[in-house]
Amino acid sequence: MPNTLVTGANGFVAAHVIDQLIAAGHQVTGSVRSLAKGEQILATHPEYAGKLTFTVVSDYAKAGTWDEAVKEGNFDYVIHTAAPLLDDPGNTDFKRDFLEPSVDG
User: Fold this and answer.
1) Among 21, 73, 87, 88, which has the highest number of CB atoms less than 10 A from its own CB?
2) Residue 35 has pLDDT above 70, yes or no
3) Of 63, 50, 55, 70, whose CA–CA distance to 10 is shortest?
4) Separation of alpha carbons 98 and 105, rounded Å
5) For 72-85, what is each residue's pLDDT tens digit?
6) Which of left, alpha, beta for 39 (phi over 0: left; psi -120 to 50: alpha)?
7) Better-predicted residue by pLDDT, 59 or 23
């Protein structure tokens, strides 16, 4: 059974990706900014129990933030769907607040 990391697991695109991966027989680990976000996914999709786990990554653009999760996860695949928060009023510089975190994350 393939083991896949999906970043930004509680996002719109990730929801569809996770659904397809689980249907295809993958074990999925989703990154979320808080464990409560992961619990919301499982509350909505109880059929994912035992097939979807979570790793908390509060700031995915921070250098080294993925090291431990990737090292411990032993993933066969990584699907990067995480994106900067659009509703943060402090995000005013496209390059700094959106482009660089998306690429570097």
Assistant:
1) 21
2) yes
3) 55
4) 10
5) 888 999 999 987 77
6) alpha
7) 23
Question: What is the C-alpha to C-alpha distance for residues 72 and 49, in angstroms, rounded to an integer?
Answer: 20
Task: Kindly report the pTM of this predicted structure.
Answer: 0.85
Residue 77's contacts (CB-CB under 8 Å, 6 or more residues apart) are 2, 3, 4, 5, 26
**Can you give the length of the chain in residues?**
105
Tokens of 84: 């900067």
Q: How many CB atoms lie within 10 A of CB 92?
A: 8
Task: For residues 103 and 21, give the distance between their C-alpha atoms in angstroms, rounded to a whole number.
Answer: 23
